[in-house]
Amino acid sequence: MRSSSSESRSSSGNDGEGSGPSGSFNLRNLSKLILPPLGKPAGQAHQPHGAGSINDKWIISPLNSRYRCWETSMVVLVAYSAWVYPFEVAFMNASPKGGLEVADIVVDLFFAVDIVLNFFLAYIDSRTQLLVRDRRKITMRYVHI
């Protein structure tokens, strides 16, 4: 009798996901263990029709993996700029020609896109430790900093 009840518990749909208190460790749940709660998950946040619901679909989480890749590429572009621009100023009188000019224009375009992207990037409020997804607050924080 006892073994059948333990079998029914193991086949209750848990599938080793670690969702229960005695579940096995799962790497997908690691962020829940390490990071503080960042407000309600997007699926649970119910907002009435209006500005809040429209804004949320365009807001980017700073923890999003695609945003992290973007951030990494921006670091590489900053390193490129820090290395190349002094040589351009010193040896080319700040007017590069050919492929270097095209590369500079592309880098500048990426920086411009990054400025616009920051107006849609949620942030963690230092006082409440919650993820702020309100577009007006994000804009005001970005403009005032």
UniProtKB/TrEMBL annotation:
Q: Where is this region: Disordered?
A: 1-23
List the Gene Ontology MF annotations in alphabetical order: voltage-gated potassium channel activity
Q: Name one GO cellular component term.
A: monoatomic ion channel complex
- Which residue ranges does UniProt annotate as crossing the membrane? 67-85, 105-124
Biased-composition ranges, Low complexity, are 1-14
Where in the cell does this protein reside? Membrane
Q: Which domain of life is it from?
A: Eukaryota
The name under which this protein is listed is: Ion transport domain-containing protein
